[in-house]
Amino acid sequence: MSDVSLTSPTTDPAGLLVYFVGTRFALFWLALKTGFLTVITLGFYRFWMKTRMRRWFWSAIRPGGHPMEYVGDPWEKLLGFFIAVVILTFYIGIINLLVMFVSFSIFSSASVGYLASVVGVIPLWFYAQYRARRYVLARTRWRGVRFGLEKGAWGYAWRALVHWAVTLLTVGLLWPRMTFWLEKYVTDRTYFGSARLNQGGHWAMLYRAAIPFILSLLVLVGGAIWVFWLDPIVVSADMTTDDIIRSVEEMMDGGAAALPVVGVERLGIFLIGILGLLYGAIHYRFVSKRLMANHKTADGITLHSRLSGPRVASIYVLGSVIAYFFLVLGVVGLVIFAMLTLGPSAMLGGAMGDFGAAVDLPKSIAVLLIAVFYLSIFLLWNVLYSTFVTFPLMRHIAQTLSLPQRHGLQVISQRARDEFAEAEGFAEALDLGAAI
Amino acid sequence: MSTGFNGFGAAYFDGDRPIGKEVSLHIANNNLQIGFDNGTTLFWPLEDIRTLEDNADKQSFTLRLITDPLARLLVTDQMLLGYLPNATRRSPPKGRGKLALWAAGAVAAVALQVTVLVPLLADRLAVFIPPDGERALGEATFEQIRDALGDTGLAPLAICENPAGTKALAQITAALNAGDGAPEGLSVAVLDHDMINAFALPGGFVVIFKGLIDHAETPDEVAVVLAHEIGHVVSRDPTRHALRSAGSIGILGLLFGDFAGGAAVLFLTERLISATYSQQAETNADAFGYARLEAANVSPAALGTMFERLRDEHGEGNELLGHFLSHPSLSDRIENARSAADETRNYAPILDDAGWKALQSICD
User: Fold this and answer.
1) Alpha-carbon distance values, A372 to A36, A336, A366, A368, B36 (Å)
2) What phi, psi does A387 have (nearest 5°)?
3) Where are the transmembrane segments (chain B) (predicted)?
4) In angstroms, how far is CA A349 from the centroid of its own chain?
5) CA distance B198 to B324
6) ipTM for the assembly
């Protein structure tokens, strides 16, 4: 860190760089430790786990060499969860009952009720999303100065609903508009100390981020026209969908196709198209963030991101593959461990009914063991995902970010504490706080 | 005596402006002396200094003072840590009373809603559901139960529809469902499952499991159960129950999260089958059942006979017993059934031998 300008932030011509410190192993260890505690406390430690993971990540991200700080308190998260449960049980329970009543009385069917009940939670979901963001920002500091987000969760919720409606009505054509305006709503209400952030730019600029997705879509549509219409694979004139499926199945079994087909290898274009769509989705999600970051400013402060779409995609793909590989290793390890501790006869006995089993486990203990096993796998996946996906992703996002202009920092002062009793309780209760 | 530390890379943040100040660091008289370029010095008592936990960097650490929530000191000299006696001690907890209050509130809110609010509302609303709606509710729950009990979720549980058996069943139903206040559109179905049980659903559905018919020794024993279930149909108990379940789905899903949501639905299905109604509802259904049996000239005592045999064979853990006898005690119920029978009267079986044979083979 010797080349970092630690104390006089206005002298570095390249701008204030964001560093990322901390090793993968340290994170793995922290995740494993806290995850284990979460499992043995039947999930209650998750508030501590989340706090500690955030503290670690925040302290690893160092704009100008100075760590971010997460000051959230696990007890306040637990309290927030309880508050949300109290409010939501009344909302969801009573509303659900009324909705089902109306559904049966007027529409004579359950599906309308189920649909309404799901739709009814959607505004709450957006509301919770904004509240969770507000909580995290209010508990984030850099150089001792708090971040903050103004109140406005219901405003966010109804805007999100309208934008989603518009996006669905235009079959996704106006998706970038939604991305931009929702992000602008949040950014324009975000503070660092006394400085207010501003989201500049125009929503149409986000179409650039959607190019890989659009191209993949074109490949799929073009491929479909080519393979099924212009130069059909199946020569027979009166083919049906069933025939095609049957042919494909027979070919997969290594037999000859039931129908005369030409150039089946051209179907590979769909594989390419679908992989392209997946890549396009990741690319859009992150490159749109980059484009918008480059238009985020505060007085005398600008942001610049060099985030790379292909790099993020490779992190997702490689990270997931590695995490999956280790998960399989871990599961095999767990099974071997169980064999060694309980004895192979117990495993065999379990598989063949309790026929002559040497270890006669009571049913309740067996169920408990299975539950712990299941939770362990779940825990292992979380730990591996944090290590091989979240870690490199955060690192890449941090290291590609910088503050070219930062003389505005000189005039910033502290902002008041946002007490925020219910923390991210709603997000937790509605199960959308999974991401860091 | 004063010990000096390497101040390179160290920075002090005053908790007001995001500007780091270069510092010199010394320890003297149990104080950390933080010296600034302008000649001023801050004194931090050593025992009041804490490090921030879960720090990702091994080369640097951040210090805070328990009496100042905002000021931060970033330090790179590891030597300093050895001089801080309470570096890793936790701050005293605060606001635990409030937490306990809300925790109690959360438990109370869920309990209040599941046990009082939802049932109350459901009971009031059940009266207003039009017959079509009730029918739809019953069909939905019927399908749900068939799916849940079906073969590993692939095919729903089969309905037994052997023509002769169906005819015999219709004969029993007609005999029991006559006279004043007989519900219209009553449909009785037999499901091919070994469970010894029967239950009513909204909209006049009564479901009998094949296990019950297999277990019964006389057709009257099937008839007494059916009469009791018709009693529930007439008083709309299942409708109330189904509405309650609908209201509870959301709460349970909330508490257990998505991943246990499926389990919650299964649990509710189970609750529907082994629906336990209030004592009053059970007593009313019994009274209704006995009246119908009398009208059909069938002895209510068959109920007592059947329950007694069930108890002897399976103990009180049996599903049917659990369902029927949860509130009034088992022996009371048997006693009541016996005394409901008029000893001077000449009862006849509800089906003749041929009809009983047909009913027994309804699932073949």
Assistant:
1) 11, 15, 10, 6, 55
2) -70, -45
3) 99-122, 246-268
4) 41
5) 9
6) 0.77
CB neighbours of A166 closer than 8 A, spacing ≥ 6?
A174, A177, A178
Residue A352: the pLDDT is 40
Q: Residue A361's pLDDT is what?
A: 54
Please state which of the ranges A72-86, A298-312, A386-400, B305-319 shows the lowest mean pLDDT.
Answer: B305-319
CA B220 remoteness from chain centre: 35
In the three-class reduction of DSSP (H, G, I as helix; E, B as strand; rest coil), residue B73 is classed as: strand
Interface probe, candidates A94, A108, A390, chain B, greatest B C-beta count within 10 A: A108
Is the CB of A59 less than 8 angstroms away from the CB of B54?
yes
Q: What is the pLDDT of residues B270-298, one digit of tens each?
A: 455 445 676 777 778 888 888 888 888 88
Q: Which residues of A touch B113 (CB under 8 A)?
A: 89-90, 93-94
**Is A105 in contact with B130 (CB distance < 8 Å)?**
yes
Closest Cα in chain B to A102: B129
- Please tell me the predicted confidence (pLDDT) of residue A202: 93
Cβ <8 Å between B55 and A56: yes
**Considering CB atoms only, which of A57, A85, A144 is closest to B71?**
A144
Token output for B9: 């890379």
Q: Considering only CB atoms, which chain A residues are within 8 Å of B19?
A: 9, 143, 409-410
CA atoms of A148 and A155, how far apart (whole Å) = 17
Phi/psi for A123 (5° steps) reads -60, -40
Burial class (CB in 10 A: 0-12, 13-18, 19+), B152: exposed
What is the rounded CA–CA span in Å between residue B332 and residue A374?
45
CB contact under 8 A, B251 and A145: no
Report the pLDDT value the prediction gives residue A307, as an integer from 0 to 100.
92
- Give B268's contacts in chain A (Cβ within 8 Å): none
Please tell me which of the candidates A66, A90, A93 has its beta carbon nearest to residue B11: A66
DSSP B90-107: PPPP--HHHHHHHHHHHH
**B329 pLDDT band (50/70/90 cuts)?**
low
CA torsion angle A305 A309 A311 A315 (round to 10): 110
> How many residues does this entry show for chain B?
364
Going by the DSSP 8-state scheme, the letter that residue B194 receives in this structure is: -
- Lowest average pLDDT, out of A43-47, A95-99, A170-174, B81-85, goes to A95-99
Using DSSP, how many helices (H) and how many strands (E) does chain B show? 12, 12
**Nearest CB to B20: which of A26, A66, A79?**
A66
Judged by phi (left if over 0) then psi (alpha if -120 to 50, else beta), residue B290 lies in alpha
Residues of chain B with CATH 2.30.29.30: 2-83
The pLDDT value given to residue A396: 94
Q: What's B2-83's CATH class?
A: mainly beta
Residue A4: predicted pLDDT: 44
As a whole number of Å, the end-to-end CA separation of chain B is 99
- The residues, ordered by sequence, that sit 6+ positions from A262 with a Cβ below 8 Å of its Cβ are A231, A233, A235
Q: Give chain A's end-to-end CA distance (angstroms, integer).
A: 27
CB distance A28 to A383 below 8 Å:
yes
Query: Any long-range contacts for B208-215 (C-beta under 8 Å, 24+ apart)?
Result: B210/B160, B210/B362, B210/B363, B212/B320, B213/B359, B213/B360, B213/B362, B214/B360, B215/B306, B215/B310
Measured in angstroms, the CA of A150 and the nearest CA of chain B are apart by: 19
Contact yes or no for B140 and A109 at CB 8 A: yes
List Cα–Cα distances, B345 to B297, B300, B341, in angstroms. 9, 12, 8
- Of A53, A83, A143, which has the smallest distance from its Cβ to B102's Cβ? A83
Contact B18 A193 (CB under 8 A): yes
Q: Give the per-residue pLDDT at B234.
A: 84
Q: pLDDT digits over A167-205, tens only? A: 999 998 999 999 999 999 999 999 999 999 999 999 999
Question: For residue A182, what pLDDT is reported?
Answer: 95
